[in-house]
Amino acid sequence: MRPTAVVTGASSGIGAATVRALAAAGFDTVSAARRVDRCEALAAEVGGRAAALDVTDDASVAAFAAGLDRVDLVVHSAGGALGLDRVEDADLDQWRWMFEANVLGVVRVTNALLPRLRESPTGHIVVIGSIAGFEVYPGGAGYTAAKHAVNALCRTLRLELNGEPVR
User: Fold this and answer.
1) Is 143 one of the catalytic residues?
2) Please, which pLDDT band fits residue 1 given cuts at 50, 70 and 90?
3) From 78, 109, 143, 145, active-site residue
4) Cα–Cα distance list, 88 to 80, 99, 146, 149 (Å)
5) Are 124 and 73 in contact (CB under 8 A)?
6) 0.85 surpassed by pTM
7) Cβ distance 3 to 72 under 8 Å?
8) What is the mean pLDDT of residues 34-63?
9) Angle in degrees, CA 116, 44, 110, rounded to 5
10) Tens-place pLDDT, residues 94-152
11) Cα–Cα distance, 113 to 95 (Å, whole number)
12) pLDDT per residue over 12-46, tens digit each?
């Protein structure tokens, strides 16, 4: 049986490219995103599966996880940046979305899939980051704050999973 790789944010960009690369490397792929039609086209292209997933929605993540019987690799690619406002002009709705998608989305999906990853002899969690997780730029406070949080989340998760069969 081929190992199963789940890719969030797989409807475009890095997520879609990751699905193609993993399929070429022999993984059974699950392309997951809000734009299911795009995931379905990608799944048909690579011989994988498609699933609806909104990483900002608890019920969506729970339903998605319930539909998986095996996960060997999860690649967190869902997320994004909104706005270029100065901090003093911050659009808090945009900030909330960036934290929901970039940070809490990683937490939700990781927590939901961790039991399956622990069952795998080769469980791996990969989080697509950004230089914004280390650096800042004018107008980028919301996104860089979210990506800094993702960086801290990943570093902490690595420590917490030390000694377990998940990397």
Assistant:
1) yes
2) confident
3) 143
4) 21, 18, 17, 20
5) yes
6) yes
7) yes
8) 98
9) 25
10) 999 999 999 999 999 999 999 999 999 999 999 999 999 999 999 999 999 999 999 99
11) 26
12) 999 999 999 999 999 999 999 999 999 999 999 99
Count the alpha carbons within 13 Å of 30 in the hemisphere toward its beta carbon: 23
- In whole angstroms, give the CA distance from residue 107 to residue 97: 14
Bridge partners of 75, per DSSP, are: 7, 126
Measured in residues, the chain has a length of 167
Q: Where are the alpha helices (DSSP H) in the chain?
A: 13-24, 36-46, 58-66, 92-98, 105-119, 141-160
d(CA 42, CA 24) in angstroms, rounded, equals 13
Indicate the burial class of 51 (C-beta count within 10 angstroms; 0-12, 13-18, 19 or more): buried
φ, ψ at 8 (rounded to 5°): -85, 155
- pLDDT recorded at residue 94: 98
Q: Which of 79, 92, 81, 27 is nearest to 53 (CA)?
A: 79
Rounded Cα gap, residues 130 and 62, in angstroms? 27
